[in-house]
Write a structure and sequence with these properties.
The chain is of the alpha/beta class and 373 residues long. The protein is 49% helix and 12% strand. It starts with a helix and ends with a helix.
Length: 373
């Protein structure tokens, strides 16, 4: 617990802001780590997920398919991109920069793989909009949209949209709003590619900590005076799961059977996601990561299970963990709360009313096109 106070004190000095009370910080801290340790204990008994999925796959099972993977420069995203390509899928990776030689590392791992890289910074509304336009310019089908990229426990930071119009806290921008926007901006591609018998799939990474997230319809507001990185992360993952649940209902109601969506907890995985863990906890984290955490490939296993499952309708609107349909938090099951969050998010872009997701997606794209270069 002292690490929470040290972290908040150093940030308050740096930013010149007041944080939540110490008790609030302790509560957020305790809830997220309790969730994490429970999930860690459960996965230790689950065995290797990647071995299970690998035993079910067929060579070239994804030949002729196209997937987008965000956050593919490392970790789960990198392993997912490699796994997809090894089965014949053309993988389009969205990365902030290719300074780390992402394409070269992917190609070295899967020599026969087909990869394309497009610039994508999920902290930037302009970049998300440009990425969607660039992908459409490739005139490729889109069978899988894998919204993998995330940030966790990051210091308070504002992500800018168009000058002062759209600005959001980083966790909610990267973990919730970016997948929300990409799904809508690419929905026409997904719907055109999929069929009712073989729909396109949108897979959004949530987290087990969505269970301890607080529902906040104004979570994207820029009030650093009461900021908790633990609360921001868990809330962003809750909002992602709620978006998936509501969007699946919209697609079903509209008869748009050519697209399905699902939320995923990949497990407690040893990746760079933990780079913001506070200094006093880093030795404990390093020990657990080296002995108990999943590998990035095991973290990619549930994603690949949902890519490869034949009855795509069975995954629609559900929350998945360890390759199994799992009961999500109560807020995710609350239809009214999910609808309100969705409508509140659309209202940020001046859109209100309507239940047809294709029309709403077109309206959102038009709003962004009119505002962004």
């Amino acid at each position: 617990f002292p690490s929470v106070f040290l972290h908040n004190f150093s940030l308050s000095v740096l930013l010149g802001v007041r944080f939540c009370s110490g008790m609030d910080s302790i509560v957020h801290f305790a809830k997220i780590y309790a969730c994490g340790f429970e999930a860690l204990a459960r996965q230790l008994f689950a065995g290797s997920m990647s071995a299970k999925v690998s035993s079910e796959q067929q060579p070239d099972a994804l030949a002729g398919k196209v997937a987008i993977v965000t956050g593919a420069s490392s970790g789960i995203g990198f392993e997912t991109a490699c796994w997809l390509a090894s089965l014949g899928c053309h993988v389009v990776v969205g990365c902030k920069t290719d300074s780390g030689g992402v394409l070269q590392r992917l190609q070295a791992r899967v020599v026969s793989g087909q990869f394309t890289s497009l610039p994508l910074d999920l902290r930037s509304m302009q970049s998300i909009h440009s990425f969607a336009k660039s992908f459409k310019g490739l005139r490729l089908p889109l069978h899988y949209l894998i919204n993998n990229a995330a940030v966790m426990l990051a210091p308070f930071e504002v992500c800018a949209g168009n000058q002062q119009r759209w600005q959001f806290e980083e966790h909610h921008m990267v973990n919730y709003l970016a997948p929300f926007l990409l799904t809508h901006l690419l929905l026409s591609c997904l719907a055109f590619t999929g069929t009712p018998t073989n729909p396109s799939r949108v897979l959004c990474l949530s987290s087990v900590v969505h269970y301890c997230g607080s529902l906040d319809y104004d979570a994207w507001s820029l009030d650093p005076s009461c900021y908790s990185s633990h609360a921001a992360y868990s809330a962003s993952k809750l909002h992602t799961a709620m978006f998936v649940a509501h969007f699946s209902r919209l697609l079903t109601t509209a008869g748009a059977a050519s697209v399905v969506v699902a939320a995923i907890h990949p497990g407690v995985v040893a990746t760079r996601l933990y780079r913001h863990v506070s200094l006093p906890l880093q030795p404990i984290h390093s020990l657990l990561a080296s002995t108990c955490f999943r590998s990035a490939r095991d973290g990619a296993a549930t994603i690949m299970h949902l890519v490869l499952v034949k009855q795509a309708a069975d995954i629609h609107g559900k929350y998945w963990s360890d390759c199994q349909d799992t009961k999500p938090a109560a807020a995710v099951q609350d239809h009214e709360a999910c609808a309100r969050l969705y409508e509140r998010t659309l209202s940020l872009f001046g859109i209100s009313g309507g239940e047809n997701p294709l029309l709403l997606a077109a309206a959102l794209e038009a709003a962004m096109h009119a505002t962004l270069p």
